[in-house]
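Feature request, filed as a ticket because there's no other form

It would be nice if the structure record came with a short human-readable summary line next to the tokens. Right now we just get the raw output. Example of a typical job, pasted below so the devs can see what we mean:
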Amino acid sequence: MAKYKVVINSLDNVRELLQEAYNQADEQLIQSQNEISKLSSSTKLSEEIMESKAKYAKAMNDYLGMKDKAISKKIEIARLLSEICKHNGDSNKGNEENAKAMTFDFSKIREMVNNSSSEKKSETIELKKK
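Raw output as currently delivered:
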């Protein structure tokens, strides 16, 4: 990955950086799919011994793990980019909104729990055995 100079509150700069990361995740996804295709077309499992089948399964699992990570990266980049575009690249607005969403009033939470537990009365249910 090339070196980038990240400018805070520059939507174009951040968008360019995220696009490059997205492209690399896409390349990783394509590369792992190509490796899976090569491995599956070059191996006849019916003719292999168990040790070879185990190695084949491990290699396939590794490639599938790489694919999964690449897809996760692409999703996270898309989420991040949508958040940035939502605030027009202003990091202060995003930070303020996240701070508001993360504040908890524990006294209100305790009051709600106490009210809900005092309102409910325990009930006994008897089951008949056959």
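Something like this underneath would help us a lot:
The chain has one domain: 11-118.
The helical segments are 11-42, 50-86, 91-101, 106-119.
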